[in-house]
Fold this sequence. Notes:
2 copies of one chain form a homodimer.
Chain A: H1 9-12, H2 25-38, E1 42-46, E2 51-58, E3 64-71, E4 79-83, E5 86-95, E6 100-102, H3 108-119, E7 123-130, E8 135-140, H4 141-150, E9 155-157, H5 158-164, E10 166-167, H6 178-186
Parallel strand pairs in A: 5-7
Antiparallel strand pairs in A: 1-4, 2-3, 4-5, 6-9, 7-8, 8-10
Amino acid sequence: MKYPNGIKKDTIFHNINYKNRGMNLENDLNITNEYYREIDKAYIYKKPTPIKIVNVDYISRKAATINEAYFMEPSTTDYNGIYKGKYIDFEAKETKNKTSFPLDNIHPHQIKHIRNIYNHNGIVFLIVRFTSLDKTYILLGKDFLSYIDNNSKKSIPISYFVSKGYEIKFKLQPRVDYLEIIDEIYGGII
Amino acid sequence: MKYPNGIKKDTIFHNINYKNRGMNLENDLNITNEYYREIDKAYIYKKPTPIKIVNVDYISRKAATINEAYFMEPSTTDYNGIYKGKYIDFEAKETKNKTSFPLDNIHPHQIKHIRNIYNHNGIVFLIVRFTSLDKTYILLGKDFLSYIDNNSKKSIPISYFVSKGYEIKFKLQPRVDYLEIIDEIYGGII
């Protein structure tokens, strides 16, 4: 069973796994982004899942029930917002794979989107969690695109994340402090 | 009949009105944003309508039908993206009112969002179309917030748009060239 949007049913009804601190990456990021908003550090949101609405029942003036709709493929990445006045944009993915990140996780129009944002000087990256290894990496857009452009492989080996990426260590607050890494990478530039 | 997200049924099944060139503001903006992407000027998208999914039928591995879902109130504005490396964010609204823009068109958390983006140096504004007058204005976030903070009225008079806002003249390509106005306002700063 697979949602077309890359949401897997088993991540929604996720069993508590203490090694992974009981949370999946999406939940961790939602909590992290909420924390960033609370401390007025950044305003970054997950975009709603795009849905094609086919039929709506109007029960009353105020209530409308959608009774036929379908998941659509997203044309952009899932997360975007503002950090220090700059545009920030990323896609977050989990894989159970221990040796590589399968590229079919990222749609072709999402790759195009990442390229556009990179060319326009946005801060753009992937956050990839290897759930079996309990490791989470940031891979900058430029390094992701460089891999895509120079390899015909259908996956990115974990060694590429280790050498080109940046590991995000789990913290209690915020859980996935990716902006700390962004600060390190960009230094005084932003 | 009103969708909770501010989408009116009559704008979806919109009659062709040659005075308004047959398009509503949302359609005009979609075409405009598509044009900006085609000429590689800016990457600005309308966010999907947030929907609360209650029940999904799994017909096959590939197809999933949502058969119970509800519209949710958006917590941010509808449009955001990147322009010249900067974060850009806006809300677009139409009103049939000829004398003022009713503030119940903008939810309290959207006002909060506009304030946050303004405080963090994003380019943030409203695009308001007075459909009966066939006039479309940009009102910058700072002027919108200034009005909200200094008035207890439930609407913004059109005179405020005339004095503080910037009229977007209709063009053939792109239809609603709001970035032209943004360039004028910000000049060489961005």
